[in-house]
Amino acid sequence: MTCSARRVRVVAETVGWLADKLSIVELKIYHMQEQADRQDVAPDFRARCEGRLEVLRMQRDDLAAELTQLLSDVTAGRVVPKVYRQFKMYNDPQYRQTK
Questions:
Q1: Which of 59, 67, 70, 87 is the most exposed place for a label (fewest CB within 10 A)?
Q2: Backbone angles phi, psi at 7, to 5 degrees
């Protein structure tokens, strides 16, 4: 059976992209928890941090579920991640204008 006959979806998100986002959110949770646990700040500051922790944990759970689903879909052949090529111009002397 060909790819088109199986209705394979092409997605822009990759496993690496989602894993990167997930690790960033985990770091934010860690540091926000540190702030929420501080005893040298006002209670309203700690309460705001707790509210932000709730949002960050929801984001983490959403990203983890999306990553799990993507891995399942890729493994089953339902999804093919689209590869985007990097074109970095900032360190290539060919792209520098001379004055």
A1: 87
A2: 60, 55
| Cα 61–chain centre separation | 11
Query: Residues 18-32: pLDDT tens digits?
Result: 999 999 999 999 999
The pLDDT, as a whole number, for residue 6 is 60
Pull the structure tokens for residue 57.
Answer: 């944990």
Q: Is 64 exposed, middle or buried (0-12, 13-18, 19+ CB in 10 A)?
A: middle
**51 CB-side CA count, 13 A:** 6
User: Mapped to the 3 state alphabet, what secondary structure does 8-48 carry?
Assistant: CEEECCCHHHHHHHHHHHHHHHHHHHHHHCCCCCCHHHHHH
**Encoded tokens for 65:** 């579920």
